[in-house]
Amino acid sequence: MEHHPFAAAPADAPPLESLPVEPLLTSAFDTDPAGVYGQLRRTYGPVAPVGLMGVPVWLVLDYREVLEVLRNASLWRRDIRYWRTRAEGRLPQDWPLLAGYEVRQTMFMDDEEHLAARGTLHSALGPFQDGRTPQGWELRANVVAYADELFALLAAESGSAGYMDLAAQYTRPLLLMITTRLFGCPVELGDEMVMDLWRMLDGGPDAGPATGRALAAMTRLAAHRRAVPGDDLTSYLLLADPSLSDEQLGRELFMNAVYLNDITGNMVCNTLLEVLRGNATVRRSLSAGLIGETVNRAALANPPVANLCFRFAARDVRLGNFWIRAGDVVLPSAAAAHHDLMAIGSPLVDSTVSTRAHLGWGAGPHQCPSAARELAGQIVATAVGRVFEYFSKVELTLPPDQLPWRSGPVVRGLRLLPVRYELSRSRPVRQVPSGRVTANGVPRPDAPSRSSVHHARGLLASLRHLMFGSRKGG
Ligand code: HEM
């Protein structure tokens, strides 16, 4: 790639603000993002100026350029204070994506500060990373038990065959239970928090207040776990860095909640879709235990973090066919890069592309931490695996190209994943169990109860209501 490390942009190179830009988030983008990326690439090359909710940004489309931006952290900064438009006060105060970017946490740090924060997270996630520690083992047992609980509920409510939404009635409640458990939430980490994370990521009209609410909930949790430590991520973060204030810890939890809850949930749904629409080979590879390969395929086809976080140019630099000026914002698109990678005749690949080349976890110094990837991989594998163990038959009730996707600049996630199912006779679901519940009513796998099932039903009901009743702007 051509670099001009010390050159300033030539005077005749058009600044981002001077270029006419088309809005990225259109109904065409909702239904066919690949088509939109392709059109932009044909018009502008590997980097395109686009409007993001009224603000011009550089969208990075090609695999090679995206990788360069992700890997070169000294040139492409994460700290929002590098953003010239913001520093000059030209960003609308109510710009829907601003609230999330103003939450200062690991993702938006650079250099030593970033390394230290990442180290803290790594130590705190360590005990949960794999099944070899008691905490890791228990968390995995919890994931299995929660999934089983949801199937028991489905059988009790809807019978052994029927219709269901695998997103609203399985994946989202499952991830909510897991987040509650991993974070050590004594209070309701309810469906409203999930929806607030959506509102923030999708940049709906309520994004600002939604960010504030989710952050406040996480700060309360931080304060609680400081007073009453437990065997959970919140307490381990405090142990790894006792100097964290409740507010700082709340901000870190907030970001981790986005990934654990929303992004991991979308990875589950996107992987389920990959299998459901897949041919016999995909299904066979799943039954042969090659779930990792299926997850990689799904990450390549539909990475849940479709467009990664903004980066800001530390100095003038040429990228694609444009000069990016110091302080300009760029949006590296993993989804567009994947289309570039898979394009027939791409100079980057020969006849086959390794599915592991995907950028679903990011790349470079801000890549998803290994402990988080390990944990997320296990959750996705268990959640997806359970579906195909319990169902003898499961098929989409809509053609894949008619499935409704969320609209927004960051996440590629399904609103619904409607299926027709038949529960397997050879793998009966558990009976509705009896026992205890946690303070927030989420079923405890060690002592699940009748009231826990009631609570889970309530959770499902309200999630369904929110899923079908709400619509965020994009
Ligand atoms: C399948 C699920 C997941 C996917 C697809 C995913 C994807 C990603 C991606 C793409 C990034 C980089 C974003 C960028 O560079 O702009 C990232 C960063 C991050 N992820 Fe994950 N993630 C997942 C699960 C998790 C989980 C479960 C956790 C924590 C419990 C987590 C914690 C983080 C953190 C802390 C960062 C920021 C790292 C940094 O800036 O240094 N992720 N993740």
In CATH's first tier, which class of the largest domain applies?
A: Mainly Alpha
**Spatial strand arrangement across the major sheet:** 1-2-8-5-3
Gross morphology is: globular
CATH level 4 superfamily of the largest domain: Cytochrome P450
pLDDT < 50 stretches: 432-456, 466-474
Output the helix-strand order.
Answer: HHEEHEHHHHEHHHHHHHEEEEHHEEH
- The total of helices stands at 17
Rg to the nearest angstrom? Answer: 22 Å
Considering DSSP H and I runs of 4 or more, what fraction of the residues is helical? 40-55%
The CATH architecture term of the largest domain is: Orthogonal Bundle
Largest sheet: 5 strands, mixed
CATH topology of the largest domain: Cytochrome p450
Number of domains: 2
Gap between N and C termini: 34 Å
